[in-house]
Amino acid sequence: MAALITSVMGNTDKVVEYIRECNSLGIDVLKPDINKSFGKFSVEGNNIRFGLEAVKNVGSKVIKDIVLEREKNGEFKDFIQFCKRIQSKDLNKRVIESLIKCGAFDSINSNRAQLMAGFEKILESITSDRKKNLAGQVSLFEMSNKEEENIYVLPRVSEFREKEKLSLEKEVLGMYISGHPLSQYERELKLNSNINNNILSQAKESYEEFLKLDNKDIIIGGIIINKTIKTTKRNDIMAFIELEDLYGSIEVIVFPRILQKYSHLIKEDNIVYVKGRFSIKEDENAKIIANEFEEIIKIEDKELWIKIKDISDRHMLSEIKNILNKYKGNSLVYIYCEKNKKAFKGEKSWMVQINEDLLNELECFLGKQNVKIKNCQN
């Protein structure tokens, strides 16, 4: 598989496809590492190590210099040592920036924000000292350890937030490698979506079954990774977006009226649910025609609403309480009474962990239409 991925390094979509296939086979594709990676994708134990040639702005000449230095004098101990040891003119600011963004230095300095904030000054200092040495102006050996430490110091900076770190990875790799922005929303996506790209891929195995999805109503959650604006013949604005979930991506068509209504949500890097219908035509990739957009809220920020006919029905309340007791958690429960059209906030002892099993059990007892998840009220 390493050789196969290497053969398509110029095609990011293919690389992503093969990496997903590796994951499905239980093979991890490890992020780039300045002490482990080679130019090509390589086998490392039972896994595959990301090749440095697949990192944007990192050329084969500087990669060769890095690997040769590593093999000759051992692994790099820290970032400053790396910059000192690699004396190639091809090691410029753009190369180092891309290596930082993809996490290639994580094994020797895990704070990418710190490296981003300080690498230019470090590189300039080292380059300046080399020139002085060549000119005979000063020798690093004549400099005290304390002076040298003061010159080569990285600033104290807090690490990037996870979403920003992943975004920078994607900028230089064309994909997320150390995680995924949707990972923390996996439970929510499973609960609230009725389709995902994994199900879609499986459906494609039978073309007749795949065509049956045409015009079906769907709800899918994902992150908007690309947005293209187009002007219609009537001079209205519409959009074509690429929505990525944990399994792949799909094109979503947003017509002018929907774009105008949900423009605040339809932005790159936003995590949303799309409600709409499938459009599947022969010799074309599946598309979604969007009808609604909704922000994805974590389960912890949701409330459980249960509708019953009469709040005085003690037997009904007792049965509901028995179900809720199996799923203790931190989400509030509200009971809405149809008889007097009032909502009652459940006691603290009623608080639950909202999950699929809880919802299934309540829906079997009360009916699906009587169990809802809502965003927390402020």
Notes on the protein architecture:
InterPro entries: DnaE2/DnaE/PolC, DNAPol_HHH, NA-bd_OB-fold, NA-bd_OB_tRNA. It comes from Tepidibacter formicigenes DSM 15518. Pfam families: HHH_6, tRNA_anti-codon. The chain has 3 domains: 2-173, DNA polymerase, domain 1 (Orthogonal Bundle); 183-295, Nucleic acid-binding proteins (OB fold (Dihydrolipoamide Acetyltransferase, E2P)), CATH 2.40.50.140; 299-375, no CATH class. The mean pLDDT is 88. It starts with a helix and ends with a strand. It has a 5-stranded mixed beta barrel with strand order 4-5-6-8-7. A 4-stranded mixed sheet has the order 12-11-9-13. Strands 1-3-2 form a 3-stranded mixed sheet. It has helices at residues 2-7, 12-24, 60-73, 79-85, 93-101, 112-135, 145-151, 162-173, 186-192, 197-203, 207-211, 256-261, 314-324, 356-366; strands at 29-30, 42-44, 47-49, 217-231, 237-244, 249-254, 271-279, 287-295, 302-308, 328-331, 333-337, 342-345, 371-375. The protein contains 14 helices and 13 strands. Helices cover 37% and strands 21% of the residues. With 378 residues, the protein is of the alpha+beta class. The longest helix is centred in the first third of the chain and has 24 residues, at 112-135.
